[in-house]
Amino acid sequence: DFLNYYLKIGRVIVLFDALDEVPRQYRTKLHKTITSYFLSYSPKNEICITSRERGFYPQNEIPVFEIQPLRRKEIDTYLDRMIRLHYFREEDKPVFFHQANALVSQKFLNSFLLLSLLVSIFQAEKELPQTKIELYSKCVSYISRDREKDKAEISEKDDWNDILRIMKDSTFIELSKLACPNNESIAEETILDVLSKVYKQKFGGIARAETAVEEFLRFCSERTELFVPAQQEGSYRFFHRSFFEYFYSKYLSREKNVRKIVQGFRKFDQDSEVFELTAAILKNEDEFLYQQLIEYLLDKASEGLLADRMKADMLNILTLVMQAVDDQQYIFDYCKLFLLNSRLIAPKH
Q1: Residues near 92 by Cβ (< 8 Å), separated by ≥ 6?
Q2: Burial of 223 (0-12, 13-18, 19+ CB in 10 A)
Q3: Considering Cα of 217, then 221, then 225, then 227, what sign does the dihedral take?
Q4: What contacts 221, CB < 8 A, 6 or more positions away?
Q5: Which of 81, 227, 251, 317 is most buried, judging by how many CB atoms fall within 10 Å of its CB?
Q6: Which residues of the chain have pLDDT under 70?
Q7: Contact at 8 Å (CB) between 93 and 79?
């Protein structure tokens, strides 16, 4: 009654955080419900919705604001404050800026959360990652292993070695498969069942492996910002959707069949990073398969356009994958695809 009263008189500020994390099958309906409700029922209230750029579909009447990438001035102010708090050394500032120049020019530094992670990585390694894949890789290593391994209260424990045997990419890839398609919560029983079977040989049996997995989950929940307890009691999830998508992209990149990779893409909505990350990983690790994927998508997108099946999503998948493509020939082929099919692609009036 309290909320309804103030909603009706228009005295409420309503905040919806991370609308892009709503499961894909519910998202469109939820978007329509939110926009129609507040436009018709309580237009006097102020509504703020946060989402990835392609994770929410606003009505024309709703203004959209984009958080701009950080500039040198903001980075400079942040580092000065870190120096005053004795969290960063003043003599390291010019080196940090020199390495960060490329990231700034690419508009890669788009949040202070990202900047804080880069500062932590720099302090550990004196070197910044230069690509999104390197960033995720170094973040995972720092958060899950490097930050903790030298701490006496951790390294002196007998179970630390057991945790380290599980704390690796292949474990998080298995967890990402369980969390698909949108960083779903995973029941602890499911995690114990899956991972204890994976590691039973390593620990000499299911029971010993299950104990080690329990220690791994406890450590993750207490000491990392990577894999943490979910809202549902007795379940876990990746702390941030980006980490989930990074590991699922690593899983897809291990598929040796481009059709299976594309089938994996179909589970994700257009705001996902999986398309870009998978292509970027393949470009670094398997050039031949990367080329096969781009050429397959170009062919299938062309076939879909010629058949006038614009509801087919191959063109969308190709467009999202192209974020990671810098090959001149593929960029030319992509542009040519649009030019040759402009009549089909252009909106009908």
Answers
A1: 122, 123, 126
A2: middle
A3: positive
A4: 227, 228, 229, 236
A5: 227
A6: 57-60, 147-158, 308-312, 344-349
A7: yes
Burial class of 234 by CB neighbour count within 10 A (0 to 12, 13 to 18, 19+):
exposed
Q: What is the pLDDT of residue 153?
A: 52
Q: How many other CB atoms are there within 10 angstroms of residue 154's CB atom?
A: 15
Q: Is 227 helix (H, G, I), strand (E, B) or coil?
A: strand
CB 216 within 8 A of CB 167: yes
Strand partners, 237: 228
CA distance 87 to 119: 9
pLDDT digits (tens, 9 = 90+) for 53-72: 777 766 667 788 888 888 88
pLDDT for position 309: 52
Q: Please report the pLDDT score of residue 120 as a whole number.
A: 85
Q: Which helix (H) or strand (E) holds 13?
A: strand 13-16
Whole-number pLDDT of residue 43: 78
CA distance 105 to 83: 24
Q: Is 270 helix (H, G, I), strand (E, B) or coil?
A: coil
Helices (H) and strands (E) counted in the chain, each on its own, are 19, 5
DSSP 8-state symbol, 167: -
Q: What is the pLDDT of residue 48?
A: 87
Q: What is the DSSP string of 140-178?
A: HHIIIIITTTT-HHHHTSTHHHHHHHH-SHHHHHHHHHH
Contact 45, 15 (CB under 8 A): no
- Residue showing tokens 């002196």: 156
SS (H, E, C) 170-187: HHHHHHHHHHCCCCCCEE
